[in-house]
Structures are given as structure tokens and as C-alpha cells.
Design brief:
Serine Threonine Protein Phosphatase 5, Tetratricopeptide repeat; about 160 residues; single chain; mainly alpha
């Protein structure tokens, strides 16, 4: 009995080794530089966004949870997903703007706020959002001036 098992295992090992050698001999040559992509792109799931208000509402709910916990990066990701599932979801745009403001992403927050205002100009948060838009636009305009002031201050300090 043991002899039969040993013979069967040795035959199996021999055929497996032969198949492995055959595969390695017939492996096609691959150009190492062909088709290179960013190392993280192949890890990202590709999602085809179709209108799905239920998924958008779920993403908004999870985003609110993250925002309450102070995890604004995760919240912004969920709010962005909600806007992709339902581009007409005004609340998702508003909350995306708030989360991006917390992350000091002024231009992206401004875009989200403007999208909210275009969708719901008379909504509950419209007054607050208009104030934030004005402040973000001022900050956007003052940014180059501050950079110029810093460069002129640096040249003034040189001997």
C-alpha cells in the first residue's frame, strides 16, 4: 500500500515538474516598460457611476459620520462619491465644500459650494454658502499678493 502511494506521488511530482518547465519555456517575452501606469492606479477600483440616489444617500450618511468624528478626508471622499452617484444632490455638494474647507482645499471647496448654489440657490444653507464663497474668493485673490510680499521681503533682507 505504501509503495503504491509513493509511486503515485513520484509520478505526480514528475508530471508537475514537466508542466512547470513547459510553461516557463513557452512564456511569452514581455517588454518591461510596456504599459507602465502609476503604481496606485491598478489598485483603484473602477466604478461606473450611474444615477443612484439610494447609494448617494448612503454615502452622504457615512460621510456625515466621518465628519462628526473629525475624519474630514474620509468624509470628503464619501461626499464626493455621493455627488458622482447623484450630481443633482445639493446637500452632498455643500457638505463636500465644508469637508474640503476643513482640509484647507480652498479651490475645491469653492467649486463644491458653487455647485451647491447652482443646484439650490434658495436652500437652507444658501446664505451661509454665499458667505463662504465670498471669503474663499477673497482668499484666492489675496494668495498671489501674499506670495509677492514674501518674495519682496526676502529680496529686501538680502545684503
Amino acid at each position: 500500500m505504501r509503495l503504491a502511494i509513493l509511486i503515485a506521488l513520484s509520478l505526480f511530482a514528475a508530471t508537475a515538474e514537466a508542466q512547470l518547465q513547459e510553461r516557463s519555456e513557452t512564456a511569452p517575452e514581455v517588454d518591461a516598460t510596456a504599459g507602465l501606469v502609476d503604481e496606485d492606479e491598478d489598485l483603484l477600483p473602477t466604478t461606473n457611476y450611474a444615477f443612484n440616489p439610494i447609494q448617494a444617500k448612503n454615502d452622504l450618511k457615512v460621510g456625515k459620520f466621518y465628519a462628526k468624528r473629525g475624519s474630514y478626508r474620509a468624509a470628503a471622499g464619501r461626499f464626493l462619491e455621493a455627488t458622482k452617484w447623484n450630481p443633482l444632490y445639493a446637500e452632498a455638494h455643500w457638505r463636500l465644500g465644508e469637508a474640503r474647507e476643513e482640509l484647507d482645499q480652498g479651490p475645491q471647496a469653492l467649486d463644491a459650494y458653487l455647485a451647491y448654489l447652482s443646484l439650490d440657490p434658495k436652500g437652507k444653507q444658501a446664505k451661509h454658502v454665499r458667505e463662504r464663497v465670498v471669503e474663499l474668493e477673497r482668499a484666492k485673490e489675496n494668495l498671489p499678493l501674499a506670495a509677492e510680499d514674501a518674495s519682496s521681503a526676502a529680496t529686501d533682507m538680502q545684503p
